[in-house]
């Protein structure tokens, strides 16, 4: 082999080694699913953008690898992921894995950066509906029932059993989910983008997400309008505006409030002003009796 051929082969080897050095590995994915950001999704929760800071912390190490030697692109990626994010915490690594697979394609100029947040937003609603039903409504209740029964029997292992029943599937999903999300992002999303399936998937997920949000809006709104209409009849509950509205459509007050907030947010009203306004309206309404 000539000296030129030797130098070329050496250069190619160095480039390959350098690329492998900045390639996201299985270890990177697992570490991200168990780091401070992933485990602290609700510790830095804010009413403004909810889990966005924790999500950035969860994926920051992988973003540094993807955009090594490109500090401006790394900063832009962090700003991109600082958008609103909220999900059942055990599913956050799964979404992070998909997002990192997409970021690799963004770094190569294959897809638009905005598509990453589009996919994240489309996944939040449906996965939260599934995750809350599995972990909050089912596993947590079962774990609490077993733990409490052991405690009532005088068994000191009750709290430990409760934590094990709840956390073993939770941590398994974190570790498995981030790897599955990354592999799906590399394979499934690539094919879906080529044949137009991605748009259909996002549309379908969006429909399911709207249904979940609609149900949550009704169940998580805790205000009524107790203003009495007419004279109370002996032996019967007085007729109020709330009972009339419930007879028309249960949850109409919550849906109306949701629509008002949606319109105000569409007009770029700062969410902090909406939060403060809601607090003031609640205090005034409770004081004068037209809200309860």
TrEMBL record:
Domain of life: Bacteria
InterPro entries listed in its UniProt record: GatZ_KbaZ_carbometab (IPR050303), PTS_IID_man (IPR004704)
Transmembrane segments: 130-150, 156-176, 197-216, 247-265, 272-290
Gene Ontology CC: plasma membrane
Keywords of this entry: Membrane, Transmembrane, Transmembrane helix
A single GO BP: phosphoenolpyruvate-dependent sugar phosphotransferase system
Annotated PANTHER family: N-ACETYLGALACTOSAMINE PERMEASE II COMPONENT-RELATED, TRANSPORT PROTEIN, PTS SYSTEM
Protein's UniProt name: PTS system mannose/fructose/sorbose family transporter subunit IID
Organism, as annotated: Lancefieldella rimae
Lineage summary: Bacteria, Bacillati, Actinomycetota, Coriobacteriia, Coriobacteriales
């Amino acid at each position: 082999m000539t000296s030129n051929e030797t130098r070329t082969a050496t250069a190619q080897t160095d480039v390959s080694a350098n690329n492998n050095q900045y390639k996201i590995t299985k270890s990177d994915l697992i570490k991200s699913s168990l780091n401070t950001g992933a485990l602290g999704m609700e510790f830095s929760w804010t009413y403004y953008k909810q889990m966005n800071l924790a999500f950035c912390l969860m994926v920051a190490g992988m973003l540094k690898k993807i955009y090594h030697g490109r500090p401006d692109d790394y900063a832009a990626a962090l700003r991109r992921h600082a958008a609103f994010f909220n999900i059942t915490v055990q599913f956050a690594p799964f979404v992070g894995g998909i997002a990192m697979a997409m970021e690799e394609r963004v770094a190569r100029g294959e897809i638009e950066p905005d598509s990453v947040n589009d996919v994240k937003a489309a996944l939040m609603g449906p996965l939260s509906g599934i995750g809350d039903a599995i972990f909050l409504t089912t596993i947590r209740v079962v774990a609490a029932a077993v733990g409490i029964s052991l405690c009532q029997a005088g068994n000191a292992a009750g709290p430990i059993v409760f934590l094990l029943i709840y956390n073993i599937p939770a941590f398994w999903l974190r570790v498995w989910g981030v790897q599955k999300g990354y592999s799906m992002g590399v394979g499934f999303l690539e094919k879906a983008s080529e044949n137009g399936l991605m748009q259909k998937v996002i549309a379908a997920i969006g429909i399911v997400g709207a249904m979940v949000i609609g149900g949550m809006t009704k169940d998580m709104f805790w205000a009524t309008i107790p203003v009495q209409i007419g004279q109370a009849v002996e032996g019967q509950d007085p007729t109020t505006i709330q009972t009339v509205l419930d007879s028309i459509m249960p949850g109409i007050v919550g849906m109306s409030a949701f629509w008002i907030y949606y319109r105000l947010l569409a007009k770029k009203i700062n969410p902090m002003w909406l939060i403060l306004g809601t607090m003031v309206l609640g205090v005034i309404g409770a004081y004068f009796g037209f809200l309860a």
